[in-house]
Amino acid sequence: MFLPTRRSCGIWIALVLLGLMPLSAIAVSPAHKFPKCCVWRVVNSEAPFYLVGSIHALSNKDYPLPGPYDLAVKDSTRFVFEFDPTRADEFEKKFEAAAKYPRGQDIGSKIDPTLLSWLRQNILTVQPDSPREKHPRVAGFDSELRYKPWWIAQHLAAPASYSKSSASHGLDNYFVDHARIARKEIAGLESVDEHVAVMGGMSDRDGEFMLRDALSQPGDGAKESSRMYKAWRRGDTDALWAGDARLRKEAPSIAARLVENRNVKWVPRIEAELKTGKPTAIVAGALHFSGPRSVIALLQKRGYTIEQL
User: Is residue 175 part of a domain?
Assistant: First the structure.
């Protein structure tokens, strides 16, 4: 759903005290052949046109990928991602800026006081190395009160989720690297500002939900990630959609913000790409190709015939 950056920026949040443990790493197995993949082809397009459902973090053991992924790489002269990865530096700066409250405001007045008290008792921040310091500096939670709850939630989960399944091996980067080597066109479905706004424009209420969710389910995160990974390997969009059911039930506005609302915006842009007649691969999170209002379903309603490879 969301494209991680290649390098980290800002603070990392460490889980400490009260026996709260970080998520364990995703267990992955070497690549082997499955009946289907998260790759689709638009049959009635002028030129080869692929829809590629990505998973943003993989192990190097997942390579080589099943054939349809490399077919999309080989046949395409243009690659369109969630946002243009050649503007990653701009995205990182704007994304971290969006994660902070304006001067004079902080999280202390934005979330429930009980939750704030818990964070102060249980969370430490790890400051990056500075030229004058040989080691990272550990500080109390209050040292980073300007960060919004969704950012803190993301950093509670992200380091553990990517501890062994690195974003550097993710499918997005695999396609980006091949496109750059072959000097093929690279573009984005969203502008940098639109991509930042997916999280950066979230309300404090929704951000607090994400923070509570990250804190309340540390033990289930690895299992859920493993289930989603296996569903992706099988090309099982029903299982991918089912895996997101809890969020849709408990926080439908957040679920729609992350996936379905974006699908609606993307489809006219994807259709415009189709009409160029250029061999193209659209590469986005696999969840965007799952469910009744997926990119695939919306394109089919516009008359496109799509087959899963």
Answer: yes
Contact 54, 159 (CB under 8 A): no
Q: Is residue 256 part of a domain?
A: yes
The per-residue pLDDT for range 64-75, each reduced to its tens digit, is 999 999 999 999
Dihedral sign for Cα 91, 65, 231, 267, please. positive
Amino acid at 280: T
Residues 6+ away with beta carbon under 8 Å from 174: 63, 65, 69
Q: How many distinct structural domains can be found in the chain? A: 1
In-domain check, residue 296: yes
User: How many CA atoms, within 13 angstroms, populate the side-chain half-sphere of residue 9?
Assistant: 18
- Please name the residues in contact with 282: beta carbons below 8 A apart, sequence gap of 6 or more: 49, 50, 51, 52, 80, 189, 270, 273, 295
What is d(CA 211, CA 199) in angstroms, rounded to the nearest whole number? 13
pLDDT, one tens digit per residue, over 156-187 is: 755 544 444 456 678 999 999 999 999 999 99
Q: Which two tokens stand for residue 240?
A: 């991918």
Residue 268 in contact with residue 276, Cβ under 8 Å?
no
Q: What is the pTM of this model?
A: 0.84
The owner of tokens 């842009």 is: 269
Task: Tell me the C-alpha distance between 269 and 285, whole Å.
Answer: 16
Residue 212, judged by CB atoms within 10 A of its CB (0-12, 13-18, 19+), counts as middle
Instruction: Please tell me the distance from the alpha carbon of residue 50 to that of residue 176, in angstroms, as a whole number.
Output: 15
Helix (H, G, I), strand (E, B) or coil at 123: strand
pLDDT in tens, 58-104: 888 889 999 999 999 999 999 999 999 999 999 999 999 999 999 99
- Whether 19 maps to a domain, the answer reads no
Q: What's the domain range around 271?
A: 30-104+166-308
